[in-house]
Design goal:
It is found in: Lysosome. Helices cover 30% and strands 20% of the residues. The protein is built from 13 helices and 16 strands. Helix 11 runs parallel beside helix 12 (293-299). The protein starts with a helix and ends in a 17-residue tail after the last strand. The protein binds alpha-D-galactopyranose. Alpha-D-galactopyranose binds at residues 34, 79-80, 128-130, 158, 190, 219.
């Protein structure tokens, strides 16, 4: 084979496998059923919380009416336990007619009428994690087409009951099959989570060409321990993970559990702040019908959402781990701006952490600093020492821009639609 043929052949392979849907140039935002609602299918005794069309309609109403949609939270995503245990006569997946009497098409129409989007769930194996029908290799084409026929906008492809060999074929095949439907469908792959999340088993270059987002670590639970273990894993592996992220391809540390039962106010702020540093998809999994004002104001914080949605799409890093238990995180943003998070692992009292911007690698003379939770601003010289008081398991988060320029306003949300 001469060189030209070789180059052509490898370019053709790339095009064949590249995910070409133009979606999710900033991390997707919305709501996902799993963490809060699991596999509750008992609609007879628990009608408000069971996995049924009513639940997704209720959440869509809340997103639409309570100011979430304008902030970018547009996806309403079904997770496991939506289907019947058997396929229909044509071999297609079918929703449980008792719980989804209008079918999935009714739900996608409901979302689209309101400027929202619908996501659905499947599994690259014989069964989903909860034992519903999976999508083994020979069913990939038919299932992708079914989701497109239902006008679904996003698809999460889980990996229970599949092996590494099947996954190697199945995840790329599904990417192609979704593309082949001609419908733009955001593609969330759980593949790396089933392969330990790290090279050499996981090839992040390939993933970025196949999937819009991917889970690479265990499931989030409603606890601080769980949130902390995710934070630790992501930042311990940041050298591998940060280059993988960018417009259209995101590491997914799993859902936001703010609004549930496991996190204090400070811990909720920490999750929101660090998910923004990580350029993480923001999928809430909480009951938006009864969410507290406190949780809502954290999830609806415009500056943090603006940081999460920054158009450059760089995933941020941990830049310091102090013996005192303070850690500092940094994310570069567009317009020469950046975000800093001071996080305390301590369990005693608010810690007064003293540093300066030059100690944190800032070299321009002076900066405008905005505290994203209080809205307070300040002009800081790089050499000036300052003190931030960081609560136990909490954060202080700053948006930082060069001082004195007109364009250095805090980030604004310019997009309604997070695709
Ligand atoms: C796996 C996934 C979860 C959820 C469940 C559903 O555990 O990682 O996010 O989808 O399956 O059964």
């Amino acid at each position: 084979m001469n060189l030209a043929v070789l180059v052509f052949a490898s370019a053709a392979t790339l095009t064949t496998f590249a995910l070409d849907n133009g979606l999710m140039r900033t991390p997707p935002m919305g709501w996902l059923a799993w963490e809060r609602y699991r596999c509750d299918i008992d609609c007879e005794h628990d009608p408000k919380n069971c996995i049924s069309e009513n639940l997704f309609i209720d959440m869509a109403d809340r997103l639409f009416e309570d100011g979430w949609k304008e902030l970018g939270y547009v996806y309403v995503n079904i997770d496991d336990c939506w289907s019947l245990k058997t396929r229909d006569k044509q071999g297609r997946l079918q929703p449980d007619p008792k719980r989804f009497p209008g079918g999935i098409r009714k739900l996608s129409r409901y979302m689209h009428d309101r400027g929202l989007k619908l996501g659905i769930y499947g599994d690259m194996g014989n069964y989903t994690c909860m034992g519903y029908p999976g999508t083994p290799l020979d069913k990939i084409a038919v299932d992708a087409q079914t989701f497109a026929d239902w006008e679904v906008d996003m698809f999460k492809f889980d990996g229970c009951y599949s092996n590494a060999t099947d996954q190697e074929q199945g995840y790329p095949l599904m990417s192609k099959a979704l593309n082949a439907t001609g419908r733009p469908i955001g593609y969330s792959c759980s593949w790396p989570a089933y392969q330990g999340g790290l090279p050499p088993k996981v090839n992040y270059t390939q993933l970025g060409q196949l999937c819009n987002l991917w889970r690479n670590y265990g499931d989030i639970q409603d606890s601080w321990d769980s949130v902390l273990s995710i934070i630790d894993w992501v930042f311990e592996n940041q050298d591998v993970l940060t280059p993988a992220a960018g417009p259209g391809r995101w590491n997914d540390p799993d859902m936001l559990i703010v609004g549930n039962f496991g996190l204090s106010k400070d811990q909720s702020r920490t999750q929101m702040a660090l998910w923004a540093i990580m350029a993480a998809p923001l999928f809430m999994s909480t009951d938006l019908r009864v969410i507290s004002g406190e949780a809502r104001s954290i999830l609806q914080n415009k500056m943090i959402i603006g940081i999460n949605q920054d158009v450059l799409g760089f995933q941020g890093r941990r830049i310091l781990k102090e013996k005192s238990g303070i850690e500092v995180f940094w994310r570069p943003l567009s317009n020469n701006a950046s975000a800093l998070v001071f996080f305390s692992r301590r369990t005693d009292m608010p810690y007064r952490y003293k540093t300066s911007l030059s100690k944190l690698n800032y070299t321009a003379d002076s900066y405008k600093v905005t505290d994203v939770f209080t809205g307070k601003t300040d002009i800081l010289k790089d050499s000036t020492d300052f003190v931030v008081s960081v609560n136990p398991t909490g954060v202080v988060m700053w948006y930082i821009s060069a001082a004195g320029k007109l364009q250095d306003e805090p980030p604004q949300i310019t997009k309604i639609d997070s695709t």
